[in-house]
TrEMBL record:
Its EC number is 4.2.1.49. GO terms for molecular function: urocanate hydratase activity. This is Urocanate hydratase. Residues 131-339 form the Urocanase Rossmann-like domain. Residues 4-127 form the Urocanase N-terminal domain. It comes from Sporolactobacillus shoreicorticis. Belongs to the urocanase family. It is an enzyme of class 4 (lyase). The lineage of its organism: Bacteria, Bacillati, Bacillota, Bacilli, Bacillales. Its cofactor is NAD(+). It catalyses: 4-imidazolone-5-propanoate = trans-urocanate + H2O.
Amino acid sequence: MVKIAAKRGLELRCKGWRQEGLLRLLENVMENAENQDELIVYGALGKSARNWPSYRSIVAALKTMNEDETLIVQSGKPIGVIRTHVNAPLVLMANGNIVGQWASSDHFYELERKELICWGGLTAGDWQYIGSQGVIQGTYEIFQTIARMHFDSNLKGRFILTAGLGGMGGSQPLAGVMAGAAILCVDVNEAHIDKRIESGYLQKKTNCLDEALEWIRQAVELEKSVSVGLLGNAAEVYPEILDRGLVPDIVSDQTAAHDLVYGYVPIGYSMTGVAEARANNPKQLEKDSGESIAKEVRAMLAFKEKGSIVFDNGNNIRTQASKYGVKDAFQIDIFTEAFLRPLFARAIGPFRWIALSGDPDNIRKIDRFILKEFADNQIVTNWIHLANQYVPFQGLPARIGWLGHGERTRLALAVNQMVRNGELTGPVAFTRDHLDAGAMTHPNIMTEKMKDGSDAITDWPLLNAMMNCSSMADLVAIHSGGGGYTGYMQSAGVTLVADGTEDADARLKCTLDNDTTLGILRYADAGYEESLDEVEKKKIRRIDTEALKEENRNA
Ligand code: NAD
Protein backbone atom coordinates (compact mmCIF):
# COMPACT_ATOMS: atom_id res chain seq x y z
CA MET A 1 0.00 0.00 0.00
CA VAL A 2 1.24 3.55 -0.75
CA LYS A 3 2.43 5.18 2.47
CA ILE A 4 0.51 8.29 3.41
CA ALA A 5 2.47 11.41 4.31
CA ALA A 6 1.34 14.99 4.84
CA LYS A 7 1.56 17.17 1.77
CA ARG A 8 4.19 19.92 1.99
CA GLY A 9 4.43 23.22 0.13
CA LEU A 10 1.86 25.86 -0.70
CA GLU A 11 -0.20 24.18 -3.39
CA LEU A 12 -3.83 23.81 -2.31
CA ARG A 13 -5.93 20.71 -3.01
CA CYS A 14 -8.95 22.12 -1.15
CA LYS A 15 -11.03 25.25 -1.60
CA GLY A 16 -9.16 27.11 1.16
CA TRP A 17 -6.37 26.84 3.71
CA ARG A 18 -8.72 25.97 6.57
CA GLN A 19 -9.83 22.77 4.79
CA GLU A 20 -6.32 22.11 3.43
CA GLY A 21 -4.83 22.59 6.91
CA LEU A 22 -7.18 20.02 8.45
CA LEU A 23 -6.48 17.59 5.59
CA ARG A 24 -2.73 17.94 6.17
CA LEU A 25 -3.22 17.31 9.88
CA LEU A 26 -5.12 14.10 9.06
CA GLU A 27 -2.30 13.03 6.74
CA ASN A 28 0.21 14.00 9.41
CA VAL A 29 -1.28 11.70 12.06
CA MET A 30 -1.10 8.92 9.46
CA GLU A 31 2.53 9.80 8.65
CA ASN A 32 3.34 9.48 12.36
CA ALA A 33 1.12 6.42 12.96
CA GLU A 34 2.43 3.38 14.81
CA ASN A 35 0.55 1.12 12.37
CA GLN A 36 -0.59 3.02 9.31
CA ASP A 37 -2.04 -0.03 7.52
CA GLU A 38 -4.63 -0.40 10.26
CA LEU A 39 -5.03 3.39 10.72
CA ILE A 40 -3.74 3.00 14.30
CA VAL A 41 -1.95 6.15 15.34
CA TYR A 42 -0.96 5.45 18.98
CA GLY A 43 -2.29 4.19 22.34
CA ALA A 44 -2.76 0.56 21.18
CA LEU A 45 -6.03 1.24 19.32
CA GLY A 46 -6.29 5.00 18.76
CA LYS A 47 -7.38 5.46 15.13
CA SER A 48 -7.44 8.36 12.68
CA ALA A 49 -10.58 7.04 10.92
CA ARG A 50 -12.92 4.08 11.33
CA ASN A 51 -11.68 2.16 8.28
CA TRP A 52 -10.14 2.85 4.87
CA PRO A 53 -13.40 3.75 3.07
CA SER A 54 -14.04 6.28 5.87
CA TYR A 55 -10.53 7.67 5.56
CA ARG A 56 -10.86 8.14 1.81
CA SER A 57 -14.32 9.69 2.13
CA ILE A 58 -13.07 12.19 4.72
CA VAL A 59 -10.25 13.18 2.36
CA ALA A 60 -12.72 13.57 -0.53
CA ALA A 61 -15.09 15.66 1.61
CA LEU A 62 -12.33 18.00 2.80
CA LYS A 63 -11.19 18.48 -0.79
CA THR A 64 -14.62 19.51 -2.03
CA MET A 65 -16.13 21.37 0.92
CA ASN A 66 -16.88 25.08 0.87
CA GLU A 67 -16.02 27.32 3.81
CA ASP A 68 -19.67 27.61 4.82
CA GLU A 69 -20.08 23.87 5.22
CA THR A 70 -19.40 21.46 8.08
CA LEU A 71 -18.30 17.85 7.86
CA ILE A 72 -19.84 15.59 10.52
CA VAL A 73 -17.73 12.65 11.70
CA GLN A 74 -19.10 9.94 14.01
CA SER A 75 -16.35 7.73 15.49
CA GLY A 76 -14.06 8.08 12.52
CA LYS A 77 -16.77 7.73 9.88
CA PRO A 78 -17.92 10.74 7.86
CA ILE A 79 -21.69 10.98 7.95
CA GLY A 80 -22.41 14.02 5.80
CA VAL A 81 -21.63 17.59 4.93
CA ILE A 82 -24.14 20.15 6.12
CA ARG A 83 -24.61 23.81 5.22
CA THR A 84 -23.70 26.05 8.16
CA HIS A 85 -21.94 29.41 7.81
CA VAL A 86 -18.40 30.73 7.40
CA ASN A 87 -17.85 31.16 11.12
CA ALA A 88 -18.94 27.62 12.01
CA PRO A 89 -16.43 24.79 12.56
CA LEU A 90 -15.49 22.99 9.34
CA VAL A 91 -15.39 19.64 11.11
CA LEU A 92 -17.44 18.39 14.07
CA MET A 93 -16.71 15.02 15.61
CA ALA A 94 -17.94 12.70 18.32
CA ASN A 95 -15.66 9.71 18.85
CA GLY A 96 -16.23 6.64 21.02
CA ASN A 97 -19.11 7.92 23.16
CA ILE A 98 -21.32 5.25 24.79
CA VAL A 99 -23.93 5.92 27.49
CA GLY A 100 -22.95 5.01 31.05
CA GLN A 101 -24.71 1.67 31.64
CA TRP A 102 -23.37 0.29 28.36
CA ALA A 103 -19.88 1.75 28.62
CA SER A 104 -17.88 -1.42 29.24
CA SER A 105 -14.79 -2.50 27.32
CA ASP A 106 -16.55 -5.74 26.25
CA HIS A 107 -19.41 -3.79 24.72
CA PHE A 108 -16.98 -1.39 23.08
CA TYR A 109 -15.08 -4.29 21.43
CA GLU A 110 -18.38 -5.80 20.24
CA LEU A 111 -19.37 -2.48 18.63
CA GLU A 112 -15.89 -2.10 17.20
CA ARG A 113 -16.01 -5.56 15.60
CA LYS A 114 -19.28 -4.55 13.95
CA GLU A 115 -17.50 -1.39 12.74
CA LEU A 116 -20.02 0.84 14.49
CA ILE A 117 -17.51 2.71 16.62
CA CYS A 118 -13.78 3.31 17.02
CA TRP A 119 -11.53 4.88 19.61
CA GLY A 120 -9.90 8.15 18.64
CA GLY A 121 -7.44 8.21 21.53
CA LEU A 122 -7.17 11.84 22.48
CA THR A 123 -5.36 13.21 19.45
CA ALA A 124 -5.57 10.41 16.84
CA GLY A 125 -9.25 10.58 15.87
CA ASP A 126 -9.24 14.36 15.65
CA TRP A 127 -5.97 14.58 13.72
CA GLN A 128 -3.89 16.41 16.32
CA TYR A 129 -1.12 13.89 17.04
CA ILE A 130 2.38 15.22 16.33
CA GLY A 131 4.43 12.14 17.23
CA SER A 132 6.06 11.34 20.56
CA GLN A 133 6.85 15.00 21.17
CA GLY A 134 3.15 15.61 21.90
CA VAL A 135 3.67 14.57 25.52
CA ILE A 136 7.38 15.20 25.86
CA GLN A 137 7.20 18.52 27.64
CA GLY A 138 4.63 17.07 30.06
CA THR A 139 6.97 14.20 30.92
CA TYR A 140 9.91 16.59 31.21
CA GLU A 141 7.94 18.93 33.53
CA ILE A 142 7.02 15.91 35.71
CA PHE A 143 10.70 14.97 36.01
CA GLN A 144 11.63 18.58 36.79
CA THR A 145 8.94 18.85 39.45
CA ILE A 146 10.14 15.60 41.05
CA ALA A 147 13.69 16.98 40.92
CA ARG A 148 12.56 20.16 42.71
CA MET A 149 10.53 18.24 45.28
CA HIS A 150 13.00 15.45 46.07
CA PHE A 151 16.44 15.84 44.51
CA ASP A 152 17.67 19.42 45.04
CA SER A 153 16.40 20.40 41.58
CA ASN A 154 18.85 18.11 39.83
CA LEU A 155 18.43 14.66 38.26
CA LYS A 156 22.11 14.24 37.37
CA GLY A 157 23.28 10.89 38.74
CA ARG A 158 19.67 9.70 39.19
CA PHE A 159 18.21 6.46 37.82
CA ILE A 160 14.73 6.44 36.25
CA LEU A 161 13.06 3.07 35.53
CA THR A 162 10.10 3.01 33.18
CA ALA A 163 8.49 0.95 30.42
CA GLY A 164 6.68 1.44 27.11
CA LEU A 165 8.32 2.91 24.01
CA GLY A 166 5.18 3.30 21.93
CA GLY A 167 3.74 6.40 20.28
CA MET A 168 3.51 8.39 23.49
CA GLY A 169 5.72 6.40 25.86
CA GLY A 170 8.50 6.88 23.30
CA SER A 171 8.92 10.43 24.63
CA GLN A 172 10.16 9.16 28.02
CA PRO A 173 13.81 8.42 27.14
CA LEU A 174 14.33 11.82 25.57
CA ALA A 175 12.57 13.63 28.43
CA GLY A 176 14.79 11.71 30.88
CA VAL A 177 17.95 12.73 29.01
CA MET A 178 16.78 16.34 28.80
CA ALA A 179 16.36 16.28 32.58
CA GLY A 180 19.94 14.97 32.93
CA ALA A 181 19.06 11.49 34.24
CA ALA A 182 19.99 7.89 33.36
CA ILE A 183 16.76 6.34 32.12
CA LEU A 184 16.01 2.66 31.49
CA CYS A 185 12.93 1.95 29.33
CA VAL A 186 11.65 -1.62 29.00
CA ASP A 187 9.61 -2.66 25.95
CA VAL A 188 8.54 -6.09 24.67
CA ASN A 189 8.46 -5.02 21.05
CA GLU A 190 11.86 -4.67 19.41
CA ALA A 191 10.39 -2.82 16.42
CA HIS A 192 9.18 -0.08 18.77
CA ILE A 193 12.61 0.20 20.39
CA ASP A 194 14.19 0.51 16.93
CA LYS A 195 11.64 3.16 15.91
CA ARG A 196 12.63 5.36 18.88
CA ILE A 197 16.32 4.98 18.04
CA GLU A 198 15.63 5.93 14.42
CA SER A 199 13.60 8.99 15.43
CA GLY A 200 16.36 10.17 17.77
CA TYR A 201 14.33 9.70 20.98
CA LEU A 202 16.42 6.79 22.37
CA GLN A 203 20.18 6.31 22.48
CA LYS A 204 21.01 2.64 23.16
CA LYS A 205 19.35 -0.75 23.06
CA THR A 206 20.05 -4.20 24.45
CA ASN A 207 18.19 -7.41 25.24
CA CYS A 208 20.40 -8.11 28.26
CA LEU A 209 19.39 -6.77 31.67
CA ASP A 210 22.96 -7.02 33.00
CA GLU A 211 24.24 -4.87 30.16
CA ALA A 212 21.41 -2.35 30.55
CA LEU A 213 22.03 -2.00 34.27
CA GLU A 214 25.77 -1.64 33.72
CA TRP A 215 25.20 1.25 31.27
CA ILE A 216 22.88 2.86 33.81
CA ARG A 217 25.37 2.30 36.66
CA GLN A 218 28.18 3.94 34.71
CA ALA A 219 26.05 6.94 33.73
CA VAL A 220 24.87 7.40 37.33
CA GLU A 221 28.43 7.23 38.61
CA LEU A 222 29.66 9.80 36.08
CA GLU A 223 26.48 11.90 36.49
CA LYS A 224 25.93 11.64 32.73
CA SER A 225 22.57 11.35 31.05
CA VAL A 226 21.78 8.22 29.06
CA SER A 227 18.69 6.49 27.68
CA VAL A 228 18.66 2.70 27.37
CA GLY A 229 15.94 0.62 25.70
CA LEU A 230 15.76 -2.91 27.13
CA LEU A 231 13.93 -5.61 25.19
CA GLY A 232 11.91 -7.39 27.85
CA ASN A 233 8.63 -7.61 29.69
CA ALA A 234 8.19 -5.00 32.42
CA ALA A 235 6.23 -7.48 34.55
CA GLU A 236 9.37 -9.65 34.66
CA VAL A 237 12.06 -6.97 34.60
CA TYR A 238 10.70 -4.81 37.47
CA PRO A 239 10.57 -7.72 40.00
CA GLU A 240 14.00 -8.87 38.80
CA ILE A 241 15.53 -5.43 39.44
CA LEU A 242 13.85 -5.42 42.84
CA ASP A 243 15.25 -8.87 43.66
CA ARG A 244 18.74 -7.61 42.86
CA GLY A 245 18.32 -5.03 45.59
CA LEU A 246 18.46 -2.04 43.23
CA VAL A 247 16.26 0.96 44.05
CA PRO A 248 15.73 3.40 41.16
CA ASP A 249 15.21 7.03 42.15
CA ILE A 250 12.07 7.35 40.03
CA VAL A 251 9.77 4.57 38.75
CA SER A 252 6.88 4.76 36.33
CA ASP A 253 5.37 2.89 33.37
CA GLN A 254 3.82 3.99 30.09
CA THR A 255 2.95 0.69 28.46
CA ALA A 256 -0.56 0.62 26.97
CA ALA A 257 -1.77 -0.92 30.24
CA HIS A 258 -5.19 0.71 29.84
CA ASP A 259 -6.07 -2.00 27.31
CA LEU A 260 -5.69 -5.60 28.49
CA VAL A 261 -6.39 -7.09 25.06
CA TYR A 262 -4.93 -4.75 22.44
CA GLY A 263 -2.36 -2.92 24.56
CA TYR A 264 -0.49 -4.69 27.35
CA VAL A 265 1.55 -7.81 26.58
CA PRO A 266 1.54 -10.35 29.43
CA ILE A 267 4.50 -12.45 30.58
CA GLY A 268 5.20 -15.45 28.33
CA TYR A 269 3.67 -14.02 25.13
CA SER A 270 5.73 -13.30 22.02
CA MET A 271 4.57 -10.58 19.62
CA THR A 272 3.13 -13.26 17.30
CA GLY A 273 1.61 -15.09 20.26
CA VAL A 274 -0.15 -11.96 21.45
CA ALA A 275 -1.49 -11.21 17.95
CA GLU A 276 -2.93 -14.74 17.75
CA ALA A 277 -4.46 -14.48 21.22
CA ARG A 278 -6.06 -11.13 20.30
CA ALA A 279 -7.84 -12.85 17.42
CA ASN A 280 -8.59 -16.25 18.99
CA ASN A 281 -8.57 -16.07 22.76
CA PRO A 282 -9.09 -12.49 23.93
CA LYS A 283 -10.64 -13.47 27.28
CA GLN A 284 -7.61 -15.52 28.34
CA LEU A 285 -5.30 -12.76 27.13
CA GLU A 286 -7.23 -10.19 29.16
CA LYS A 287 -6.84 -12.28 32.32
CA ASP A 288 -3.13 -12.92 31.68
CA SER A 289 -2.53 -9.19 31.09
CA GLY A 290 -4.33 -8.29 34.31
CA GLU A 291 -2.24 -10.81 36.28
CA SER A 292 1.03 -9.58 34.76
CA ILE A 293 0.10 -5.97 35.50
CA ALA A 294 -0.60 -6.98 39.11
CA LYS A 295 2.96 -8.39 39.34
CA GLU A 296 4.44 -5.24 37.85
CA VAL A 297 2.48 -2.92 40.12
CA ARG A 298 3.41 -4.97 43.21
CA ALA A 299 7.05 -4.38 42.26
CA MET A 300 6.32 -0.65 41.79
CA LEU A 301 4.78 -0.53 45.28
CA ALA A 302 7.82 -2.34 46.71
CA PHE A 303 10.10 0.25 45.06
CA LYS A 304 7.97 2.97 46.66
CA GLU A 305 8.33 1.28 50.03
CA LYS A 306 12.12 1.35 49.56
CA GLY A 307 12.14 5.06 48.75
CA SER A 308 11.65 5.41 44.97
CA ILE A 309 9.37 8.19 43.75
CA VAL A 310 6.72 6.16 41.91
CA PHE A 311 3.95 7.57 39.74
CA ASP A 312 1.25 6.49 37.28
CA ASN A 313 1.84 8.30 33.98
CA GLY A 314 -1.73 8.23 32.73
CA ASN A 315 -2.21 4.66 31.50
CA ASN A 316 -4.70 3.34 34.08
CA ILE A 317 -2.15 0.80 35.34
CA ARG A 318 -3.28 1.23 38.97
CA THR A 319 -6.91 0.73 38.00
CA GLN A 320 -6.08 -2.54 36.20
CA ALA A 321 -3.88 -3.75 39.06
CA SER A 322 -6.56 -3.04 41.65
CA LYS A 323 -9.07 -5.07 39.57
CA TYR A 324 -6.58 -7.93 39.69
CA GLY A 325 -6.17 -7.92 43.46
CA VAL A 326 -3.56 -5.23 44.22
CA LYS A 327 -5.55 -3.49 46.95
CA ASP A 328 -3.05 -0.73 47.60
CA ALA A 329 -2.40 0.12 43.91
CA PHE A 330 -3.79 3.62 44.51
CA GLN A 331 -1.00 4.30 47.00
CA ILE A 332 0.90 5.18 43.81
CA ASP A 333 0.42 8.83 42.89
CA ILE A 334 -1.11 9.98 39.62
CA PHE A 335 1.13 12.48 37.81
CA THR A 336 -1.54 15.10 37.29
CA GLU A 337 -2.55 15.46 40.91
CA ALA A 338 0.95 14.95 42.28
CA PHE A 339 2.91 17.20 39.95
CA LEU A 340 0.99 19.17 37.33
CA ARG A 341 -2.27 20.34 38.92
CA PRO A 342 -0.95 23.77 39.97
CA LEU A 343 -0.19 24.43 36.29
CA PHE A 344 -3.55 23.14 35.04
CA ALA A 345 -5.31 25.24 37.69
CA ARG A 346 -3.85 28.29 35.92
CA ALA A 347 -4.84 26.74 32.54
CA ILE A 348 -1.18 26.31 31.69
CA GLY A 349 -1.08 23.20 29.53
CA PRO A 350 0.17 21.46 26.38
CA PHE A 351 -0.45 23.92 23.54
CA ARG A 352 0.90 22.99 20.08
CA TRP A 353 1.56 24.52 16.70
CA ILE A 354 2.29 22.85 13.38
CA ALA A 355 3.86 24.33 10.23
CA LEU A 356 1.38 23.29 7.54
CA SER A 357 3.77 24.08 4.68
CA GLY A 358 6.25 21.58 6.13
CA ASP A 359 8.94 24.27 6.43
CA PRO A 360 10.93 23.65 9.65
CA ASP A 361 12.21 27.19 9.54
CA ASN A 362 8.72 28.43 10.40
CA ILE A 363 8.90 26.61 13.73
CA ARG A 364 12.40 27.96 14.39
CA LYS A 365 11.20 31.53 13.70
CA ILE A 366 8.35 31.00 16.16
CA ASP A 367 10.89 29.63 18.68
CA ARG A 368 12.92 32.82 18.36
CA PHE A 369 9.79 34.94 18.72
CA ILE A 370 8.88 33.12 21.95
CA LEU A 371 12.36 33.49 23.41
CA LYS A 372 12.15 37.24 22.81
CA GLU A 373 8.52 38.01 23.56
CA PHE A 374 7.96 35.55 26.41
CA ALA A 375 11.35 36.14 28.03
CA ASP A 376 9.84 36.36 31.51
CA ASN A 377 8.13 32.96 31.21
CA GLN A 378 10.77 30.54 32.46
CA ILE A 379 8.81 27.36 31.81
CA VAL A 380 8.41 28.06 28.11
CA THR A 381 11.80 29.67 27.41
CA ASN A 382 13.68 26.86 29.19
CA TRP A 383 11.64 24.41 27.16
CA ILE A 384 12.20 26.11 23.79
CA HIS A 385 15.98 26.09 24.36
CA LEU A 386 15.89 22.37 25.19
CA ALA A 387 13.48 21.48 22.40
CA ASN A 388 15.76 23.23 19.90
CA GLN A 389 18.68 21.20 21.10
CA TYR A 390 17.04 17.80 21.55
CA VAL A 391 13.63 17.33 19.95
CA PRO A 392 13.64 16.09 16.35
CA PHE A 393 10.59 16.85 14.22
CA GLN A 394 8.36 13.94 13.26
CA GLY A 395 6.12 14.50 10.26
CA LEU A 396 5.14 18.13 9.73
CA PRO A 397 7.45 20.33 11.81
CA ALA A 398 5.68 21.12 15.09
CA ARG A 399 6.33 22.36 18.57
CA ILE A 400 4.68 21.85 21.92
CA GLY A 401 4.84 24.57 24.55
CA TRP A 402 3.03 24.78 27.88
CA LEU A 403 1.31 28.17 27.79
CA GLY A 404 -1.59 29.62 29.75
CA HIS A 405 -4.50 32.03 29.46
CA GLY A 406 -3.75 35.05 27.29
CA GLU A 407 -0.35 33.67 26.30
CA ARG A 408 -1.79 31.23 23.78
CA THR A 409 -3.83 33.98 22.12
CA ARG A 410 -0.86 36.35 22.09
CA LEU A 411 1.32 33.77 20.37
CA ALA A 412 -1.34 32.68 17.87
CA LEU A 413 -2.20 36.25 16.83
CA ALA A 414 1.47 37.09 16.38
CA VAL A 415 1.96 33.96 14.27
CA ASN A 416 -1.11 34.78 12.17
CA GLN A 417 0.39 38.21 11.58
CA MET A 418 3.69 36.57 10.57
CA VAL A 419 1.79 34.40 8.08
CA ARG A 420 0.03 37.50 6.74
CA ASN A 421 3.17 39.54 6.21
CA GLY A 422 5.14 36.65 4.71
CA GLU A 423 7.63 36.22 7.57
CA LEU A 424 6.46 32.61 7.71
CA THR A 425 6.28 30.68 4.47
CA GLY A 426 2.85 29.16 5.12
CA PRO A 427 -0.11 28.81 7.48
CA VAL A 428 0.25 27.30 10.94
CA ALA A 429 -2.26 25.15 12.84
CA PHE A 430 -2.86 25.53 16.58
CA THR A 431 -4.19 22.81 18.82
CA ARG A 432 -3.71 21.32 22.28
CA ASP A 433 -3.86 18.00 24.07
CA HIS A 434 -7.23 16.96 25.49
CA LEU A 435 -5.35 16.58 28.78
CA ASP A 436 -5.82 20.28 29.41
CA ALA A 437 -7.49 22.30 32.13
CA GLY A 438 -11.15 22.40 31.14
CA ALA A 439 -11.11 19.69 28.51
CA MET A 440 -10.92 16.35 30.29
CA THR A 441 -12.70 14.32 32.91
CA HIS A 442 -10.90 11.15 33.93
CA PRO A 443 -11.26 10.35 37.62
CA ASN A 444 -8.17 8.09 37.59
CA ILE A 445 -5.96 10.46 35.60
CA MET A 446 -6.83 14.11 35.05
CA THR A 447 -9.43 14.74 37.73
CA GLU A 448 -8.34 12.38 40.48
CA LYS A 449 -8.86 13.78 44.00
CA MET A 450 -10.31 17.11 42.89
CA LYS A 451 -10.58 19.43 45.86
CA ASP A 452 -14.40 19.49 45.77
CA GLY A 453 -14.90 15.80 44.85
CA SER A 454 -16.13 16.62 41.33
CA ASP A 455 -13.78 14.03 39.78
CA ALA A 456 -16.32 12.16 37.61
CA ILE A 457 -18.50 15.03 36.35
CA THR A 458 -18.30 15.23 32.56
CA ASP A 459 -20.17 18.51 32.12
CA TRP A 460 -16.83 20.33 31.79
CA PRO A 461 -15.44 18.77 28.59
CA LEU A 462 -18.90 18.87 27.02
CA LEU A 463 -19.23 22.56 27.84
CA ASN A 464 -15.73 23.05 26.51
CA ALA A 465 -16.64 21.55 23.14
CA MET A 466 -19.86 23.54 22.83
CA MET A 467 -18.05 26.70 23.81
CA ASN A 468 -15.33 26.13 21.22
CA CYS A 469 -17.99 25.67 18.54
CA SER A 470 -19.59 28.98 19.52
CA SER A 471 -16.14 30.55 19.52
CA MET A 472 -15.59 29.72 15.82
CA ALA A 473 -12.94 26.99 16.09
CA ASP A 474 -12.14 25.12 12.86
CA LEU A 475 -12.47 21.61 14.31
CA VAL A 476 -14.15 20.52 17.53
CA ALA A 477 -14.29 16.95 18.84
CA ILE A 478 -15.94 15.22 21.78
CA HIS A 479 -14.13 12.02 22.73
CA SER A 480 -14.87 9.28 25.18
CA GLY A 481 -12.66 6.39 26.26
CA GLY A 482 -12.54 3.29 24.09
CA GLY A 483 -10.96 -0.14 24.57
CA GLY A 484 -9.74 -0.35 28.16
CA TYR A 485 -10.63 3.31 28.79
CA THR A 486 -14.33 2.74 28.04
CA GLY A 487 -16.38 4.31 30.79
CA TYR A 488 -13.39 6.08 32.31
CA MET A 489 -13.14 9.36 30.50
CA GLN A 490 -14.63 12.19 28.47
CA SER A 491 -12.65 14.88 26.74
CA ALA A 492 -12.74 17.58 24.09
CA GLY A 493 -10.34 18.63 21.35
CA VAL A 494 -10.01 21.79 19.30
CA THR A 495 -7.96 22.91 16.28
CA LEU A 496 -7.59 26.21 14.42
CA VAL A 497 -5.77 27.21 11.26
CA ALA A 498 -3.88 30.51 11.27
CA ASP A 499 -3.99 31.28 7.54
CA GLY A 500 -2.99 34.92 7.87
CA THR A 501 -6.49 36.33 7.35
CA GLU A 502 -8.30 38.77 9.62
CA ASP A 503 -11.06 36.20 10.01
CA ALA A 504 -8.44 33.86 11.49
CA ASP A 505 -7.49 36.60 13.98
CA ALA A 506 -11.08 36.66 15.20
CA ARG A 507 -11.34 32.87 15.42
CA LEU A 508 -8.01 32.45 17.20
CA LYS A 509 -8.73 35.18 19.74
CA CYS A 510 -12.23 34.07 20.59
CA THR A 511 -11.49 30.33 20.78
CA LEU A 512 -8.14 30.41 22.55
CA ASP A 513 -9.26 32.99 25.13
CA ASN A 514 -12.42 31.07 25.89
CA ASP A 515 -10.78 27.64 25.96
CA THR A 516 -8.42 28.63 28.78
CA THR A 517 -11.07 30.78 30.48
CA LEU A 518 -13.21 27.69 30.93
CA GLY A 519 -10.19 25.80 32.27
CA ILE A 520 -9.63 28.46 34.93
CA LEU A 521 -13.34 28.59 35.78
CA ARG A 522 -13.45 24.79 36.13
CA TYR A 523 -10.64 24.76 38.71
CA ALA A 524 -11.89 27.94 40.39
CA ASP A 525 -15.24 26.22 40.81
CA ALA A 526 -13.45 23.36 42.55
CA GLY A 527 -11.78 25.87 44.88
CA TYR A 528 -8.17 25.97 43.66
CA GLU A 529 -6.30 29.06 44.91
CA GLU A 530 -4.22 29.35 41.72
CA SER A 531 -7.39 29.61 39.61
CA LEU A 532 -9.01 32.16 41.92
CA ASP A 533 -5.82 34.18 41.59
CA GLU A 534 -5.97 33.94 37.76
CA VAL A 535 -9.64 35.02 37.84
CA GLU A 536 -8.60 38.09 39.77
CA LYS A 537 -5.46 38.93 37.80
CA LYS A 538 -6.85 38.29 34.33
CA LYS A 539 -10.24 39.85 35.05
CA ILE A 540 -12.25 36.75 34.18
CA ARG A 541 -16.00 37.20 34.70
CA ARG A 542 -16.64 34.42 37.19
CA ILE A 543 -20.05 34.05 38.78
CA ASP A 544 -19.51 33.02 42.38
CA THR A 545 -22.74 31.44 43.58
CA GLU A 546 -21.07 30.20 46.78
CA ALA A 547 -20.46 33.83 47.79
CA LEU A 548 -24.13 34.61 47.04
CA LYS A 549 -25.20 31.69 49.21
CA GLU A 550 -23.10 33.12 52.03
CA GLU A 551 -24.64 36.60 51.54
CA ASN A 552 -28.14 35.08 51.63
CA ARG A 553 -27.35 33.26 54.84
CA ASN A 554 -26.11 36.47 56.43
CA ALA A 555 -29.02 38.58 55.16
P1 NAD B 1 1.41 2.35 22.28
O1 NAD B 1 0.39 1.29 22.12
O2 NAD B 1 1.87 3.09 21.09
O3 NAD B 1 2.71 1.73 22.98
C1 NAD B 1 2.65 0.90 24.12
C2 NAD B 1 4.00 0.21 24.28
O4 NAD B 1 3.98 -0.64 25.44
C3 NAD B 1 4.32 -0.70 23.09
O5 NAD B 1 5.58 -0.35 22.56
C4 NAD B 1 4.31 -2.11 23.67
O6 NAD B 1 5.22 -2.97 23.04
C5 NAD B 1 4.71 -1.83 25.12
N1 NAD B 1 4.31 -2.88 26.06
C6 NAD B 1 3.10 -3.47 26.21
N2 NAD B 1 3.14 -4.37 27.21
C7 NAD B 1 4.38 -4.35 27.72
C8 NAD B 1 5.01 -5.04 28.78
N3 NAD B 1 4.38 -5.93 29.52
N4 NAD B 1 6.32 -4.75 29.04
C9 NAD B 1 7.01 -3.85 28.30
N5 NAD B 1 6.44 -3.17 27.26
C10 NAD B 1 5.15 -3.41 26.99
O7 NAD B 1 0.84 3.34 23.39
P2 NAD B 1 1.30 4.86 23.71
O8 NAD B 1 0.68 5.78 22.72
O9 NAD B 1 2.77 4.91 23.91
O10 NAD B 1 0.55 5.11 25.09
C11 NAD B 1 0.94 4.39 26.25
C12 NAD B 1 0.01 4.69 27.40
O11 NAD B 1 0.15 6.04 27.84
C13 NAD B 1 -1.47 4.50 27.02
O12 NAD B 1 -2.15 3.87 28.08
C14 NAD B 1 -1.93 5.90 26.83
O13 NAD B 1 -3.30 6.06 27.01
C15 NAD B 1 -1.13 6.64 27.89
N6 NAD B 1 -0.96 8.08 27.60
C16 NAD B 1 -0.67 8.95 28.62
C17 NAD B 1 -0.47 10.29 28.33
C18 NAD B 1 -0.12 11.31 29.37
O14 NAD B 1 -0.31 12.48 29.15
N7 NAD B 1 0.46 10.92 30.46
C19 NAD B 1 -0.57 10.76 27.03
C20 NAD B 1 -0.83 9.85 26.04
C21 NAD B 1 -0.99 8.53 26.32
